[in-house]
UniProtKB/TrEMBL annotation:
Single biological process term from Gene Ontology: carbohydrate derivative metabolic process
Pfam families: SIS_2
Name this protein carries in UniProt: UPF0309 protein
Residues of the SIS domain: 31-209
Residues in coiled coil: none
Transmembrane segments: none
InterPro entries reported in the protein's UniProt record: RpiR-like_SIS, SIS_dom, SIS_dom_sf, SIS_GmhA/DiaA_subfam
GO molecular function: carbohydrate derivative binding
Length: 243
């Protein structure tokens, strides 16, 4: 019996830890500063990357001031192939960012393995124009192997203020099978969630070290969870429409 995917993920985690900790620390410091100032942390991704945006939102053990920009036409449940086409359309991300209420001194994480499509590049450019700090989570190996589809000819990593490499390979899937052309076992979801939760936990640690009380959700499936969460939600409900 062989579960090679597990070994690949173990190696990937070690690589992320050995190569990305410096920039992850910088981003964690930025997140702590942003929350202290009363600002919001936004997340945006298309296709499977939208799952990374949902992971930290309204989450037990997650920060309260998290706003995922979730557009159904860019997600799989509203038509999988359609989402592939829509993420190549220019103009949509500008509308989504405007609708979200994102403002100067907020942060946005833009997640895209290839970093080449219009929606993600445009979101990063528009966010920078509004004065947000842009954090990209991408596969540099994949992104550098393809051309941008955006009219600027830029890719996500070339636009962002901070770039975190998820250390994935071209095409994402990493398990090679004998006498079979296709690979299986995409790594980006595991890697991206690891990166996000590591940054959030570190940001909380930074705030605690500075004598601050971080706004963190408690599980609603504990007896005290509902009452606790009602209190922490009050400060942010007016800005985070999804709450």
């Amino acid at each position: 019996m062989s579960f090679r995917y597990i070994d690949i993920i173990k190696g990937l985690i070690n690589k992320i830890e050995s190569t990305q900790i410096k920039v992850m620390e910088e981003v964690a410091q930025l997140c702590a500063k942003t929350i202290k100032s009363g600002n919001i942390i936004y997340f945006f991704g298309t296709g499977h990357s939208h799952m990374i945006c949902e992971e930290p939102f309204y989450r037990a053990g997650g920060l309260v001031p998290i706003y995922p920009i979730l557009e159904p036409s860019l997600m799989l449940h509203d038509g999988a192939y359609k989402s592939t086409l829509v993420e190549r359309v220019e103009g949509l991300s500008k509308i989504l960012l405007e609708q979200s209420g994102a403002a100067k001194d907020d942060i946005i994480f833009v997640i895209s393995n290839s970093g080449r499509n219009n929606a993600t590049v445009e979101m990063a450019l528009e966010a920078k124009n509004k004065g947000l700090k842009v954090v990209a989570i991408t596969s540099l190996f994949h992104s550098k192997s393809v051309a941008s589809r955006h009219t600027s000819r830029k890719k996500l990593y070339e636009v962002a203020d901070y770039v975190i490499d998820n250390c994935g390979i071209v095409g994402d899937a990493a398990v090679v099978h004998e006498n079979f052309e296709q690979k299986t076992g995409p790594t980006s979801t595991v890697a991206d969630v690891l990166i996000i939760n590591s940054i959030i936990s570190r940001a909380v640690e930074i705030m605690l070290d500075r004598g601050l009380k971080p706004p963190v959700f408690m599980s609603s499936n504990t007896d005290e969870g509902d009452e606790f969460n009602k209190k922490v939600l009050e400060k942010y409900k007016s800005r985070i429409k999804l709450l």
